[in-house]
Structures are given as C-alpha cells and as structure tokens.
Amino acid sequence: METKYNYFIILNTTEGAYLPLNPDNNGLLTYSTEKQARDAFQLNYKEHHEQPSATWSTSAALHWLNLQPFVISLSASLTPMEVLTTLSNSDTPDLKMYSLSSIAVRSIRAVRVDLETCRDYEVSKIELINPEWWQQEPA
Fold first, then answer.
1. pLDDT, tens digit, for every residue of 15-35?
2. Which pTM value belongs to this model?
3. Of 1, 5, 59, 134, which has fewest CB within 10 angstroms of its CB?
4. In degrees, to the nearest 5, what angle opens at C-alpha 77 toward C-alphas 74 and 82?
5. Secondary structure of the chain: what % helix, strand, coil (to 5)?
6. Nearest to 121 by CA among 33, 26, 16, 9
7. Buried b vs exposed e over 42-73: b needs ≥16 C-beta within 10 Å?
C-alpha cells in the first residue's frame, strides 16, 4: 500500500522555527504535494514583492532570505496534534499561537516547532528569488 504524505512549510526565523496555520480556521497549513507548498509560498512572494521591473523591494527580499523557509513531509495518517507533537519534539507541545509579522510575511499565525527536528524531515528549500529576475523582460 502506498503511503500518502502531507507537506508543511517551516519558517526558520531568528526567533525560532514556526509552522504556519491556516488563516481561516487556525488549522495547520497543509499541502498534498511538495510542489503545492512551494508554489503557494513563492506566489505569495511574487504577488507582494516581485514586480515586472527591477524596482521590487530589496528590503523584503532580504527578509525572505533570512526566513530560510523549507518544506517537510509527514505521513498523512498523522493527526494535527500528532504532527505538532512530532515537530515540536515534545509530548506537550506549546500550543500558543504566534503572529509573525515582517516585510516578508506580512502577518502569519503560526505555532513554534523544533528546528532540528524539522530539519530531519526536510524535503526541500524554497527558492524565493529567481537569480535571473533582472534579465527578464516585463510582461
């Protein structure tokens, strides 16, 4: 039987690692494929900070680079509480919700998780900036 996976974005900030919550219902922000997770995050960046010209926000770009977001995968059979328990590396995860706010992420509600534990599950980094952005012609 094929194992199904859920994919999560981890934000690696200077204050710690965070797992974003769904803004509508505070559930875990979950994706069914790695590509969906990466695309959703990159799309949010492009919509807010990348313009068709070379005038997009350098400050925002630096914030995004400092977040060092990456995607992890866990078995889809895990419940949300099991996911939090696993990623926080604790039997009693801190369920306090944090509101991360910066030029890069605007405002994201999230729960704190253990960075080293999350790195054990790392699937891929999210490339936030196309290195050839300055060569592309405006649409």
1. 889 999 988 888 999 999 999
2. 0.79
3. 1
4. 70
5. 30, 30, 40
6. 9
7. bebbeebbbeeeeebeeebbebbeebebbbbb
Coil, strand or helix: which one is 76?
A: coil
The pLDDT tens digits for 79-126 are 999 999 999 999 988 888 888 766 656 677 889 999 999 999 999 988
User: Who contacts 119 (Cβ-Cβ below 8 Å, separation ≥6)?
Assistant: 70
Q: Look up residue 115 and give its DSSP letter.
A: H
Whether the Cβ atoms of residue 14 and residue 66 lie closer than 8 Å to each other: yes
Strand-pairing partners, residue 124, are 71
Contact 16, 115 (CB under 8 A): yes
Look at residues 85, 108, 105 and name the one whose alpha carbon lies nearest to residue 95. Answer: 85
* Cα distance between residue 98 and residue 75, in whole Å: 25
User: What pLDDT sits at residue 31?
Assistant: 94
Place of tokens 């729960």: 111
